[in-house]
Amino acid sequence: MKNLLSLTLIIILLLTAPAQAVILPNTNAHCLTGVHTAGINNDAYEQAGMLKHLGLFQGTDKGFELERNMTRAEAAVMLVRFLGAEERVLAGNWKHPFHDVPAWAGKYVGWLYQSGLTKGISSNQYGAQKNTTLEQYAIFLSRAIAGNDDWQSNGIATAEEVKLWDEENRFFSRGAAVGLSTRALSLTYTKNDNWSYSMAQYLIDKGVFSVENLLQAAWGILPPVYKYLDQEDHLYLTLAGVAVAKTDIGGLQHLSGTDSPLPYFYACRQEGEYTQLYQIDAKSMECSLISSRKLPESGSWAYTYVGSISGVDYLFEHSYANKTINLLEFKAGQVLKLLSDFKFSQGEVYPSLKQNY
User: Fold this and answer.
1) Where a domain ends, among 199, 215, 231?
2) Contact call for residues 172 and 181 (beta carbons, < 8 A)
3) pTM
């Protein structure tokens, strides 16, 4: 009977969605953009807000206007801003051979032309008032990030997106440009044979925005990824390939719950004869010790976040050497053991959730 109740509770926990919601919203949205990047918040207005916070995008006197199409002149301005070059562009004198570029876009087009990022539609025509296509904007980004026009291989856009916008809709919106620019932040900056950092890291190194700006602007838009990046096994939070925060203690292992809807996750470390369980803030990476358990006679303890019901978190405490599991609840700062030494028959797999590290 006890085993039946235990299994029932475990099944309920694994199938119950937690009440809190920090998992990125709109990951399946195609709203306004028609550009879908897996794993990120695809809401065009939230993406535009992030880019504006980073200084990479501006609206008009009417707002972001993400629904309307974008001219080639506007695309030139947007690309310059995305590259963090606007201040330099406006301070310089950048010549170009085109006769159809309005004065307000002249320096932007001139800088892109002299930088080898745009060529125009003829020797003396830029096509400034023509609508930009998705493929054209993808080529702009590809040249800026990788130094070539191979937008598909460089991950800028997909053939399906080009077909949707340029062949079927014959329309490319400012929102779609925002979607491609947001995607580009996480791509590897490979221009000049560099393979060591993302576009976001490149912009930080250029002084366009700070690590702190990225954390505040991109949280809730770009997916957090947790990594070990030093020999002391401090745990780092990365966004768009940039380390934006880390734990103040090292040696943390067995991450659990990093893909849950909670604003925190769990990890443990061995300290002398004890296994310490920590709750870690998913954004600040602040660590709170919630349990310290003496090691079992053989092996060590490991923990798996199972789920949450009505604000109570449940975890499995594993003793792999003894092939037993304890069911714990964490509530109001206290850890309580609900079920002890729960055993699975030989050949069954210990229940666990997907981990992200």
Assistant:
1) 215
2) no
3) 0.84
